[in-house]
Specification:
Keywords: Lyase, Tricarboxylic acid cycle. By secondary structure, the chain is α+β, with helices and mostly antiparallel strands. Helices cover 51% and strands 7% of the residues. A four-stranded mixed β-sheet has the order 2-1-3-4. α2 packs parallel to α4 (76-96) and α7 (150-163) runs parallel beside α10.
Amino acid sequence: MTAMIKAHEIQGVIALENSFNRVGLDHVVLVKVATAGVVTRLMGGSREEVINALSNAWIDGQSLRTYRHAPNTGSRKSWAAGDATSRGVRLALIALKGEMGYPSALTARTWGFYDVLFRGNEFKFQRPYGSYVMENILFKISFPAEFHAQTAVECALQLHPRVKDRLEQIEKIEITTQESAIRIIDKKGPLYNPADRDHCIQYMTAIGLIFGELTAAHYEDSVAADPRIDVLRDKMTCIENPQYSRDYLDPSKRSISNAIQIFFKDGTSTERVEVEYPIGHRRRRKEGIPLLVKKFETNLARRFPAKQQKAVLDVFLDNRKLVGIPVNEFVDMFVI
């Protein structure tokens, strides 16, 4: 548990004030760095060996965000973090075998990470390392959607009963959102595959308005061929609300706000529906946790026999058992 908290805290606290996507790098570099450091320590590494592993993680070639954005959005975004984790473990193992580190991996002029990949800027830190990230973790509960669009989909589902029989009468749809959503998932034009579609706020919103739900199946070609989707996408405009952008970065809020209003050809409109926090947010834990448990149960049922499902649930729903179970026994629970 301590190692999990450390791994989340390292990558999360660095990410709070340092935007890797603005320089074209995928954030999984932080997954690799956190893994390298924490795994080295887990395996008995000394302070020097941890530093050696970390320095090698920073000087590795880093993943570009190419596969997360049009026109190259693809399935690599589904395995990029796992790939980064495996590399972090590899760097930990060689550090434990005596592989040297590089003292100025970040700061070396011309050749260090800052100059080569971060436009010469040094990292900034908002807070010391503690447990902030784990305490504020966002669970993806309700929809298989990129996080900046979670609340937009929730708005769309609220509007679905009002518009489902009037889709052809819609003149325009206004999506009010944060700067990050506009930069990352505001997409026009063709969407080429499921990975492209689940990173398009207009596509996800259209699905919610048309079908009143959003599942993984809605990203497949068979659904995407529905002409109503692109008709609605073409009528959507994304508008930044500066307050949404500020609240998104505010450490006391970390909201991910979206609002949707639909205007019809006869001059009427829906109310403006706004959702500030997705259901997986810390501020919605009371309603979110029961749904999270249900999602866990559903996915266990897809993979394991009933007896094994119950054994896993008994451990996960009892904090004393979960904290006390040896790692090897924990892993054995998931073997079929």
